[in-house]
């Protein structure tokens, strides 16, 4: 089967085209979706891409979380469809209450762009099954509002239930509490993270590795995991 | 025309990076009367007509559900001004 993965474009989305390209490189069919419609076009999985939707007015992701298509995204997520929120998409998932907590301005107040090392903490989600437990990966990070916050009780619950999907290693780039870079919902179909897997899918354009400059393709496994999840669910 | 003012502040226990930046600027200016600054948001909701209990309830609802995110912020005031 050809797996179809939708990427929703909002006003101010920046990485929707990169996300569609990553989907194609991973072997699925990318489907462009529009924030103002209620049409998910029969896709098998969804990506909310990075950018600065609605200028990040009010709070990052807050206005996008109220976009017409988000009701359909919520319904699909509740039925188990794999949904990945990247950067601004993660902020939307949090604002839409599909994932807990909040994201605030980086502790050092600067926009930051770096190739970031992460540890994959949960490999039983729809977007991480192709990783090994505890695998360390490097993908680009670029944001202003990436500081993950939640109450101590909520953080304890997230860690206790294994809902921390990714943690920053080597350096915490934005003051995120407990080094949290990304989360999953309990069902494992909804995953959000601040760093950008879609920018590390093709040799020549990814982060540099010990092997060669710009050769990092650690982001590919996000998309191959989702394809496997869809194929597995259909089998 | 009546206006409902909604004030939202970052939660006291969370770092407020913007406030911290302003506090740092005070120090560089030699202003030492203030040990801290926290930056919040003021929303002015314009009402056509009278501010009824229903309108105030609607203001409370949007303050909680849209204008603030209860994980990171608190609504600290909802006030009617003429």
TrEMBL record, chain B:
Subcellular locations according to the entry:
Cytoplasm
User: A Gene Ontology biological process annotation?
Assistant: 'de novo' IMP biosynthetic process
Q: Which organism is it from?
A: Microbacterium ginsengisoli
Provide the GO MF annotations for this entry. Answer: ATP binding; phosphoribosylformylglycinamidine synthase activity
Pfam hit, one: PurS
InterPro entries in alphabetical order = PurS, PurS-like_sf
Q: What is its EC number?
A: 6.3.5.3
Catalytic activity reported? N(2)-formyl-N(1)-(5-phospho-beta-D-ribosyl)glycinamide + L-glutamine + ATP + H2O = 2-formamido-N(1)-(5-O-phospho-beta-D-ribosyl)acetamidine + L-glutamate + ADP + phosphate + H(+)
Gene of this entry: purS
UniProt superkingdom: Bacteria
Indicate the enzyme's highest-level EC class.
Answer: ligase
Q: Which GO terms describe its cellular component?
A: cytoplasm
- Keywords carried by this UniProt record: ATP-binding, Cytoplasm, Ligase, Nucleotide-binding, Purine biosynthesis
Question: What is the protein named?
Answer: Phosphoribosylformylglycinamidine synthase subunit PurS
The annotated pathway is: Purine metabolism; IMP biosynthesis via de novo pathway; 5-amino-1-(5-phospho-D-ribosyl)imidazole from N(2)-formyl-N(1)-(5-phospho-D-ribosyl)glycinamide: step 1/2
Q: Which family does it belong to?
A: Belongs to the PurS family.
Q: According to its UniProt entry, what is the function of this protein?
A: Part of the phosphoribosylformylglycinamidine synthase complex involved in the purines biosynthetic pathway. Catalyzes the ATP-dependent conversion of formylglycinamide ribonucleotide (FGAR) and glutamine to yield formylglycinamidine ribonucleotide (FGAM) and glutamate. The FGAM synthase complex is composed of three subunits. PurQ produces an ammonia molecule by converting glutamine to glutamate. PurL transfers the ammonia molecule to FGAR to form FGAM in an ATP-dependent manner.
The entry describes its oligomerization and partners as: Part of the FGAM synthase complex composed of 1 PurL, 1 PurQ and 2 PurS subunits.
């Amino acid at each position: 089967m050809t797996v179809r993965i939708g990427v929703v474009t909002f006003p101010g989305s920046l990485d929707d085209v990169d996300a569609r390209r990553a989907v194609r490189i991973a072997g699925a069919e990318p489907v462009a979706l529009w924030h103002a419609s209620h049409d998910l076009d029969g896709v098998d999985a969804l990506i909310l891409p990075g950018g600065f939707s609605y200028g990040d007015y009010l709070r990052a992701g807050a206005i996008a979380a109220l976009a017409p298509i988000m009701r359909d995204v919520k319904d699909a997520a509740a039925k188990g469809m794999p949904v990945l929120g990247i950067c601004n998409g993660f902020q939307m998932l949090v604002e839409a209450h599909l994932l807990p907590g909040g994201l605030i301005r980086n502790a050092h107040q600067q926009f930051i762009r770096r190739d970031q090392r992460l540890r994959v903490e949960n490999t039983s989600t729809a977007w991480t099954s192709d990783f090994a437990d505890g695998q360390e990966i490097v993908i680009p990070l670029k944001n202003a509002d990436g500081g993950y916050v939640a109450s101590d009780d909520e953080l304890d619950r997230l860690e206790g239930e294994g809902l921390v999907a990714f943690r920053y290693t080597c350096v915490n780039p934005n003051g995120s509490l407990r080094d949290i870079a990304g989360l999953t919902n309990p069902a494992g179909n909804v995953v959000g993270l601040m760093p950008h897997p879609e920018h590390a899918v093709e040799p020549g354009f990814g982060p540099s590795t010990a092997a060669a400059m710009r050769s990092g393709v650690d982001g590919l496994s996000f998309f191959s995991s989702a394809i496997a999840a869809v194929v597995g669910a259909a089998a | 025309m009546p206006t409902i003012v909604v004030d939202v502040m970052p939660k006291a226990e969370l770092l407020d990076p913007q406030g911290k930046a302003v506090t740092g600027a005070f120090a560089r200016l030699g202003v030492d009367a203030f040990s801290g600054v926290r930056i919040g948001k003021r929303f002015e909701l314009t009402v056509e007509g009278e501010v009824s209990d229903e309108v105030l309830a609607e203001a409370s609802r949007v303050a909680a559900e849209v204008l603030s995110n209860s994980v990171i912020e608190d609504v600290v005031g909802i006030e009617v001004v003429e």
